[in-house]
Amino acid sequence: MISINLVLFLLFFVWPAVIGLNYSFTSYTGVGTAPYVGLDNYQRLVDDPAFYAALVRTVIYTGSVVPLTFIASLGTAYLLVSPYAKGKSVARVIFFLPWLISPIIAGVIWRWIFGENFGLVNFVITELGGKAVPWQSDANLSLIVVIIAATWANTAFNMLLFVAALKNVPTAYYEAADLDGAGAWPKFRRITLPAIAPTSFIVVLLSTLHTMKEYGLIVAVNAGGPGTENNLIVQYIFTTGFRRAQIGYASAASFVLLLILMIVAVVQLLASRRKGA
Amino acid sequence: MAKPPALRRPGRGRKGDVPRRIGASSIMWLLAVVYGFPGLWFVLSSFKPAGDLFSYPLTLFPKKWTVSGYAQAWTQFDVARYFLNTLIVASAATLLTVVASALTGYALAKYQNWWLKAFAVCILATTMLPSETILAPLFVVVRNLGLYNSLSGVVVPAVITATGTFMFRQFFVTVPNDLLEQARIDGSGELSTFVRIMLPLARPIILTLAIFSFQWRWNDYLWPLIILNDPKQFTLQIGVASIVGAQNVNWSVLLGASVLSMLPLIGIYLVFQKYVMNADLNAGLKD
Fold it and tell me: Are residues B29 and B145 located together in one domain of the fold?
């Protein structure tokens, strides 16, 4: 029985990885032969401004979404285990609902709210006497909309992780701190944060890896637009590989992405080790 | 379930509790409104007649409730077919994922073998090798297997997940080996022990993984988009994305189709809520 798993694993992970690496040295287009071109693809990538643009946008996007998600999910989780808040069971469901909504639909929801000529946000702004904001046609504003949507969509899952971690912090620590007359912030800073550090690390790592691969959400919000301004890295790979049938070139781009993801993971792992030591 | 430690503390009525209660509750509810409002606005908009969608001033509640957007989505836009396709993909993938993960997790927990250990490391490594990074070669492999443009091409590559395997492994490690020994002494075969004794024990894990897997596959977009070419085979996400991608977005249909596509998951969640919220979430539970 296990052997079926082994076959699936070899077929859908190992084999693609091997031929992918292989393709990245060819100019394969999906049909016919795959002429060997050596390091040409990587050379082209280094010189490709579109690739750089996608990479930079991805880094900006990840650099904004991950901290925002972290704060939002820790904040909501903290409130959900706080003894002071009322109506937690209903609030928990509300916070969690975005997890059920697919990236595509989440994107549509935010596109609807931030529509330039019809959206709720611009309606409120003009009602208040402001000028309609070009949420779709300005590159930076478009990216902000995607960042908001992603934070909204990613909070729920990380919140679950934090809730589990916060519930496991021993009460005795807080009681001891109470006896010493510690305030809420020092307690959070000195007891809660260190106690949940392993979970924080996992949240940051998973969110970073997840955010770097974002695709569906952006397609639905503005298709990486205006134009190709906000094409992130996966969209770049998809467009070159499947729309332009440059499978060899797209494979090379994929391996650069893989390399970046691995570096991100290793760096975060090392950072957490050093903190722990 | 025992109350979490943090909840056991209050009740002594110390001074300063009341402002704190008000403070914490109001912040939480403010956030709940922030998180809940986009969805609410979206759902309420979907009941507005097409003409009212863009007419300023916008109102929160429809002036006239209508389901014309839904009707149009259902009849003109083939939502029914997309629903069926998505249901097939999500159910088949979920079933296969649960079976494969349970078997592998069980083997990793209960049998000692050098190649099983090596396999465990390999599966763990797949979390580092997301399918987005092997998109093009994976496509070529699936195409060469003759699965291009078929629903099975969407299902099969998704069956192995490190998350599921390790959820089961962690669980089966906690099951005492005596139970297994006892079954062996009683002359029960390995497979029948697994099916009759181990699987019923793992019920909560099965349900949790099933819900997660169903959500992953229901909401999947990029991979189905690559594999499915024929509109007859489209899943809901591709269908909805194709309305968004059109030159002139038909918002009335889009709102209706989107809300419809969310309903099954919300239903499943409301029924099985405790298996999601109490899931013992470990590393890697994200696809």
Answer: no
- Residue A277, min C-alpha distance to chain B (Å): 21
SS3 state of residue A36? strand
Q: Where are the domains of chain A?
A: 44-276
Q: How far apart are the CA of B202 and the nearest CA of chain A, in angstroms?
A: 18
Interchain proximity B222–A20, CB inside 8 Å: no
How far is A205 from A265, CA to CA, in rounded Å?
7
- Within this chain, do residues B54 and B105 fall inside the same structural domain, yes or no? no
The pTM assigned to this predicted structure is: 0.86
**Residues B173 and B255 reside in one and the same domain:** yes
* Pair B129, B174 in one domain: yes
Residues B27 and B115 in one domain: no
d(CA B78, CA B73): 7
Q: Buried b vs exposed e over A192-221: b needs ≥16 C-beta within 10 Å?
A: beebbeebbbbbbbbbbbbbbbbbbbbbbb
Mutate to test the interface with B, among A3, A84, A171, A218 (most CBs of B within 10 A): A84
Residue in chain A closest to B14 (alpha carbons) equals A178
- What would the pLDDT profile of A94-128 be if each residue is shown by its tens digit? 999 999 999 999 999 999 999 877 888 888 888 88
Please tell me if residue B103 touches chain A, with a CB cutoff of 8 Å: yes
- Residues 59 through 98 of chain B touching chain A, CB cutoff 8 Å: none
B85 and B46 within one domain: no
Q: Which residues in chain A have Cβ-Cβ distances shorter than 8 Å to B286?
A: 157, 206, 210
* B10, B138, B277: residue with CB nearest A16: B138
Domain count, chain B: 2
pLDDT tops 90 at residue B58? no
Q: Do the Cβ atoms of B274 and B61 come closer than 8 Å? A: no
HSE, side-chain direction, 13 A CA sphere, residue B65: 3
Same domain, B122 and B190: yes
Range of the domain at B143: 78-277
Looking at CA atoms only, how far is residue B5 from chain A in angstroms?
6
> What is the rounded CA–CA span in Å between residue B160 and residue B105?
11
CB contact under 8 A, B221 and A103: yes
- Exposed/middle/buried for B204, CB within 10 Å: 0-12, 13-18, 19+? middle
CATH architecture for the domain at A44-276: Orthogonal Bundle (1.10)
Cis, peptide link before residue B176, omega less than 30° from 0: no
Tell me what ipTM this predicted complex has: 0.85
- Residue B92 CA, distance from chain mean position: 13
